[in-house]
Amino acid sequence: MALIIDNKKLTDGIYLMRVSSNIQAPRPGQFVMLRPEGDGLFLARPISVMDWENGVWTFLYKVVGKGTEAMSRLESRDDIFMFGPMGNGFGRVLPLEKIRKAVLIGGGMGIAPMYGLAKALRKTGAHVKIHLGFTDEPILRKEFSDVADELVINVGGYVTDDVRFEQGPVYFACGPDPMMKAAARKAREAGAELIVSLESRMACGMGACLGCTIDTTKGSKRVCKDGPCFRYEEVTGLGK
Amino acid sequence: MKNPVIAASGTFGFGIEYEEYFDPTILGGVSSKGLTLRPSRGNAGIRVWETPMGMLNSIGLENPGVEHFVSHEALEMRKLGCAVIANLGGHSEEDYVTGAEMLNGCDIDILELNISCPNVKSGGMAFGTDPDQAADITSKVKAVTRHPLMVKLTPNAGDIVAVARACEEAGADGLSLINTVLGMAIDVRAEKAVFNNVYAGLSGPAIMPIALRMVHQVAHAVSIPVSGLGGISTAEDAIAFIMAGASTVQVGATTFRDPMAMVNIIKGLEEYAEKKSLKNIQDIRGIV
Do B253 and A213 touch (CB under 8 A)? Predict the structure, then answer.
């Protein structure tokens, strides 16, 4: 069980929620399963960890359905059912301490995992450039500038238009489908190294239900257990 | 079995997915993900959809195939320290018989014959809705398998009691019921069905009263053991199924909701038996 510390509305339908729980600390790029109690919800929802500090978990989410709508009504000191952390995290795809220069690209709610990743990369001494894309109002500008060497914000356009892909830096991307496809195309053209974090509908988050299976060059993979972080070239639909 | 709680097929992988949460040794048994003769990629499109206190799924039996299971997953499952059940689905009579023959090559405790999956285009549930077809496939598999045979029934049969009786007469050593209830979801904004296959299987607490009624009917109509499942999420639910006549219970979708659900159910059954001074939880079997 976990306890809501606060649950702030940042802009229309977008919330920043802090939760206290002593479950195992996450690695950058992992997620947890969250289920508000008492709303008749059957399944928990996979939500990316934006930040973790001494048992305080920060989640950024957008209201898109019943689960996130129930989540948005939670108040300080309410209980929330939480288990995890789940998934491989970015470091299981490529050891983070080996990275000297990283370019992080986040679109919409895909900005969330980039925050924790940026923090971890900065700790190992890497140079971190962050590109964030928003449809209208930018959020968390201050927070992201605190964990970046360079921060570029795009509003209303294509965040990938601002990114120059080249060999050398490691690129990370998380965001809506068109953004991921554009990032993959540009990475391929430049021969750049790109790691993506994918989103999927899930029932269990553990690798048991097979609700989130995707096609990859290495056969069927589960976004929850084998991912959510993958090399882009492995993911069918992004790779070619 | 050390207790009557079994992880239901399709909700517990091959037993190792939940090892970070609890030691599967505490379970009575684990039923494998539904196997098919050849490896299957499963269904395209959306595969899971939440419903009021339940969920629809259209996974479509994604699995590595019987041959791979025999040489890999079955060996891993044997190490779980509980009863190992191989769940076998199929698209044709030949699939089932050949699959069962191949499973003779591995060390399992029970073969669960899945004639009730609603999510495969051919075969699957079709074998479980008609008593004659169910009996036919049961006797053919029984003739070749060296393992105890448990047939998993579908609630989508017109008369599940008739199917149950037909399977018993055809040589089934046990029955498990119910598989998922055929359901549907529509994306109203997109004006189309959520699932590529249009229909999908409903599970979770929403179907429990239906499952309980069917277990009660079937357990009173046959003399072979019945494994009850369908929406069990607490020890009290499990006790209700045993009172209705089930020898064992299976927990499925609820494990998705709460990975520790089976641990709590096992603990709750022990506490209940102690409180009621039962030597064995089976003492309450069929009392309703």
Answer: no
**Interchain pair B46, A225: CB under 8 A:** no
Asked if residue B275 has pLDDT above 90, the reply is yes
- Specify if B186 maps to a domain: no
Q: Which CATH number fits domain A90-197: 3.50.50.60, 3.30.40.10, 3.40.50.880, 3.40.50.80?
A: 3.40.50.80
- A237 neighbourhood in chain B, CB within 8 Å: none
- Give contacts of A208 with chain B, Cβ < 8 Å: 11-13, 17-18, 255-256
B98 SS3 class: helix
Range A2-86: architecture per CATH: Beta Barrel (2.40)
Q: Where in chain A is the domain with CATH 3.40.50.80?
A: 90-197
Q: What is the ipTM of this complex?
A: 0.93
**Does A140 have pLDDT greater than 80?**
yes
Question: CATH number of the domain that B134 lies in?
Answer: 3.20.20.70
pTM (2 d.p.): 0.94
A27-86 pLDDT, tens digit per residue, is 999 999 999 987 789 999 999 999 999 999 999 999 999 999 999 999 999 999 999 999
Does the distance separating the beta carbons of B46 and A209 come in below 8 Å? no
How much is the average pLDDT of B95-116? 96
* A202 contact residues in B (CB cutoff 8 A): 48
**B245 φ, ψ to 5°?**
125, 0
Burial zone of B17 (CB within 10 Å; 0-12 exposed, 13-18 middle, 19+ buried): buried
Helices and strands in chain A, H and E counts? 4, 15
Cβ-based neighbours of B91, under 8 Å, separated by 6 or more: B36, B120, B122, B123, B124
Residues 61-100 of A with CB under 8 A from B: 66-67, 81, 83
Q: Which domain holds residue B32?
A: 5-43+60-178+204-284
pLDDT at B155 (0 to 100):
96
The tens digit of pLDDT for each residue in B121-152 reads 666 788 999 999 999 999 999 999 999 999 99
The answer to whether A38 faces chain B, any CB pair under 8 Å, is no
Number of domains in chain B: 1
Beta strands A2-11; A14-20: pairing state: antiparallel
What is Dmax (Cα atoms) for chain A? Answer: 50
